[in-house]
Amino acid sequence: MDFRKSLHEGSSVKKVIGVVSGKGGVGKSMITSLLAVAAQQSGARTAILDADITGPSIPRAFGIKSKASSDGVVLMPVSSKTGIQIMSTNLLLANETDPVIWRGPVIAGCVEQFWTDVMWNDVDVMLVDMPPGTGDVPLTVFQSIPVDGIVIVTTPQELVGMIVEKAVNMASTMNVPILGIVENMSYFECPDCKSRHEIFGKSHIEEIAAQYGISNIAKLPIDSSLAANADAGTVEDYSGADLAELKAFYSTLM
Ligand SMILES: Nc1ncnc2c1ncn2[C@@H]1O[C@H](COP(=O)(O)OP(=O)(O)OP(=O)(O)O)[C@@H](O)[C@H]1O
């Protein structure tokens, strides 16, 4: 049985990529934002559906202060500086610091409405910032949005094999292909001597990806200027080497 819902009449989204992480805090929202920037700069009409309902951080990274508007029937996404269409709970709350203390079914209903009741205007690629983890809420999102494939975000820690396996199992349960893996905070490059340091431990991402037959891998460094851009709402102005890495990675997803 297919529970997945249809878009609103007049909306159009060609491809949907879910960005998932087996656990929180690995930089899933950061990678979603950067992938969207990479896609938009590569010429695709890009959108972000922020399905991280209780921890929405996308509008802040893009410096969006305005709220989403509605004609009483459909919601209009807010466009970023470079034209990325964005919908997020933070665009609906009176204050971005208001907590969202909803239970699973309400959260899932909200994500569903972001798909069915938003006027997505001629979108080539939509990135979905999925709720963290592999529990009830991400599963419900998979059931309501026709995700074409997922990108898994991890960091190089001991538990990463198990965490990736959880994400892989979730994807296979939902019958969604894995398009690639991003190892975030993979290393730190010393700005003075340019030597690389593996702050969170040695990377095993190649072995792990090979184990699951995934050949598309990107490795992004810890970069304080990237974090500063996200904090300042200027993620679209970021031009570091990892954006080039993500553009190359993005081209392997399409
Ligand atoms: N490569 C990076 N270099 C420097 N800082 C980073 C990098 N990636 C993410 N960060 C910072 O780490 C923090 C967590 O990132 P982010 O919010 O994207 O994680 P998340 O996985 O989406 O979290 P959650 O699971 O809570 O939704 C943010 O402050 C972000 O700016």
UniProtKB/TrEMBL annotation:
The keyword Metal-binding applies. One of its GO terms (biological process) is iron-sulfur cluster assembly. ATP binds at G22, K23, G24, G25, V26, G27, K28, S29. Gene3D superfamilies: P-loop containing nucleotide triphosphate hydrolases. GO terms for molecular function: 4 iron, 4 sulfur cluster binding; ATP binding; ATP hydrolysis activity; ATP-dependent FeS chaperone activity; metal ion binding. Homodimer. Binds and transfers iron-sulfur (Fe-S) clusters to target apoproteins. Can hydrolyze ATP. This is Iron-sulfur cluster carrier protein. It comes from [Bacteroides] pectinophilus ATCC 43243.
